[in-house]
Amino acid sequence: MSKFLTLVAFLIVVPALGAFIGLSFPADEWYQVLNKPFFTPRPQLFGVVWPILYIMVAVAGWRVFVSEGQTPGWGLWVGQMVLNFAWSPTFFGAHQIFWAMLIIAAALALSVTFVSVTWTRDKFASLLFVPYSAWLAFALALNFTIWLMN
Question: What is the pLDDT of residues 77-119, one digit of tens each?
Fold first, then answer.
């Protein structure tokens, strides 16, 4: 498969899976009644931020994938995606705030490690992960605070 078709696949599959999981596990009545911190964003913000982040994450993953082993980090990318996709079913589906917090902490650790590992070989892929890592750090703080408050 050509690199272009692989990029198209990444750009379709990653955001589509994220959207599917997000729509399958929405913020329901359980979430609405939780105590939440003052810095909880409006729900509309998630619908803007996540598609942009998923596109950036997809491009970074694609760059590592097509590097034919020249850029390390593929396992980190896959691992953080698995954890990313596991968070919504854990938090919104199973209502397990603590376990969701551990999942997002692990995803953050893998994403920061991805930035570090890819930095010397592909700064662009690395930089694409910086906003994502920052958002995960924010999400971890939010998840942690919700856990403390409930």
Answer: 999 999 999 999 999 999 999 999 999 999 999 999 999 999 9
**Residue matched to tokens 């954890």:** 83
Q: Provide the residue type at 72 as one letter.
A: P
Helix axes 97-118, 74-88, angle to 10 degrees: 160
Check pLDDT > 80 for residue 148. Answer: yes
pTM for this predicted structure: 0.94
Q: Write a three-state SS string for the chain.
A: CCHHHHHHHHHHHHHHHHHHHHHHCCCCHHHHCCCCCCCCCCHHHHHHHHHHHHHHHHHHHHHHHCCCCCCCCHHHHHHHHHHHHHHHHHHHHCCCHHHHHHHHHHHHHHHHHHHHHHCCCCHHHHHHHHHHHHHHHHHHHHHHHHHHHC
The set of long-range contacts for 125-131, using a CB threshold of 8 Å and a minimum separation of 24, is 125/59, 125/60, 125/63, 125/64, 125/71, 125/73, 126/60, 128/56, 128/57, 128/59, 128/60, 129/56, 129/57, 129/60, 131/53, 131/56
Q: Minimal CA–CA distance to 120: which of 67, 58, 75, 83? A: 67
